[in-house]
Amino acid sequence: MSTINCDRCGRELSHPVRYREKYYGSRCYQIVKNRTEANEENEYRDRCHALVKALKEKDMSNITNNFKLDFIPSVIGYYEKNGRLTEKQYEVAYDMLNQKDWRVMTRESYRLGVIDQIDFYSLMALNSRTGSQKWEQWRQKDKEARKFKGNNAQVSKDELKV
Ligand SMILES: [Zn+2]
């Protein structure tokens, strides 16, 4: 029988705790878990900040949909008050961004360090091309990047009548 060692301190474990595909002793587990989740929360807050910046700069003059007209200012207000958006708000607001808004969000994400230089340039290159397929790839890339702690709330457009 092979032994399991703690991924953080290397100690041999009699009662390993599994967390994110790795094993830890109970003390190291708590430390790693707290640190990981604090980092994820910070990153999520930065993503919310970038998204809200795009919403604030969004050209609303051609929007006639009442849901959008109400939702966008209310979600900005929620962010100002709470420093973050709920997952559901994020998903819905995210789907309201057009290509120009996306560039604002991507630039701000890069400034905050949420995405690195390589991602930034590949996203911007993708965005400068037209075509809905490329556009969709970009959306997917951001969605994948936001996989954190199992709360990927999926909201259907029918459900929210967007
Ligand atoms: Zn350990």
How does this structure look, described?
- The chain has a domain of 108 residues.
- It contains seven helices and two strands.
- The longest helix has 31 residues.
- Strands 1-2 form a two-stranded antiparallel sheet.
- The N and C termini lie far apart (56 Å).
- A hairpin with a 2-residue loop joins strand 1 and strand 2.
- With 162 residues, it is mainly alpha-helical.
- Bound molecules: zinc ion (ZN).
- Zinc ion binds next to loops.
Question: Whole-Å distance between the termini?
Answer: 56 Å
Tell me the β content: under 5%
How many separate helices?
7
Element-level helix/strand string = EEHHHHHHH
In spatial order, strands of the major sheet run 1-2
What assembly state would you assign to the polypeptide chains in this entry? single chain
Bound molecules: zinc ion
Structural class per helix/strand content?
A: mainly alpha
The 3D shape can be described as elongated
Which secondary structure elements does this structure contain, and how are they paired or packed?
Elements: E1 17-19, E2 22-24, H1 26-56, H2 66-82, H3 87-94, H4 99-111, H5 117-128, H6 132-145, H7 157-160
Antiparallel strand pairs: 1-2
Helix pairs in contact: 1-2, 1-4, 4-5
Bound molecules: zinc ion.
How would you summarize this macromolecular structure in one to three sentences?
The chain contains seven helices and two strands. The chain is mostly helical.
Features:
elongated, 162 residues, mainly alpha, two-stranded antiparallel ribbon, 61% helix, 2 strands
